[in-house]
Amino acid sequence: MKNKRKSTKVPACLLKTNNLVVSLVFSVLFALVFLVVYSPFSETYWLSNVFTRNFAFTLLFVSVSIIILVGSRVGMFFLSKRRRGMRWADYVLWLLGEIFLIALYYSLLSLKMDEYDLLSYLRLLGRSIIVALLALGIPYVMSALWFILVDTRRIAGATLSNGNVSRNIINFFDNNGNLKLSVSLDSLYYIKAEDNNVIVYFSKNGSISNFSIRCKLQNIEYEMKNTPVKRCHRAYIVNTLKVKVLRSEADNFYIDFDIDGLESIPVSRTYSNNIVREFSGV
Predict the structure, then answer these.
(1) pTM value?
(2) What are the residue ranges in the chain where pLDDT is below 70?
(3) How far apart are CA 123 and CA 230, in angstroms?
(4) Count of other CB atoms within 10 angstroms of residue 141
(5) C-beta of residue 74 within 8 angstroms of C-beta of residue 67
(6) Cβ–Cβ < 8 Å for 237, 231
(7) All domains in the chain, ordered by first residue
């Protein structure tokens, strides 16, 4: 059941700060171009690019709409950070909420431009929702597909081939998507979160080394989902191939590795079933 819930989560790439900003800018620009193209075909379109009363309302509409979108994305970022991700259902409903709010705001401003009875206003609101759905929904889908495609290619690039010998390479990227470290799966032990960074522990020339990267543990968890590298705690991800002992103490599990000098890694209750299942072969 837990694995099923995980599969319904939005890919971490869609919630990265840079991608949220890029998606927002692209959506605003796309919407503005869409409205300019759409205007000749609308009977209720009043946005204007000339210095008239309509122009003042146009500036007000565009400014407030951008504020709504920026505020919404900031809220989405902090909510996903607190919940360690966001489900697809919540993500889609959130974006539909943005679209509805902007459509509602447009229709309310239209009341200032002309007289509407209740039935006419409801029709106007319906048309506004459809137009907003097209103007914002299209760039939302396009940017999401692009980010997922780029992220999928990046993850696929983690497995490299060297002649006839295949060896798994784990690539670590920072928050900006820059490659910072590549480690073979055979050398990787665990990853630890510290403040806004992660510390990667790996073997090098027979001893343990570590490397600090500014990124989120959540992003690494997503990128490692099809590998033996598993999340075991809110602050730890471990390479299960390197685990020597999985032991239970005082109703909690702890992990020890096949090399001396490394700390014991706690397994929290949230991830204990997945970790036990990994070692039991279920």
Answers:
(1) 0.58
(2) 1-7, 40-54, 113-115, 154-167, 280-282
(3) 52
(4) 11
(5) no
(6) yes
(7) 2-156 (no CATH), 168-280 (2.40.50.1020)
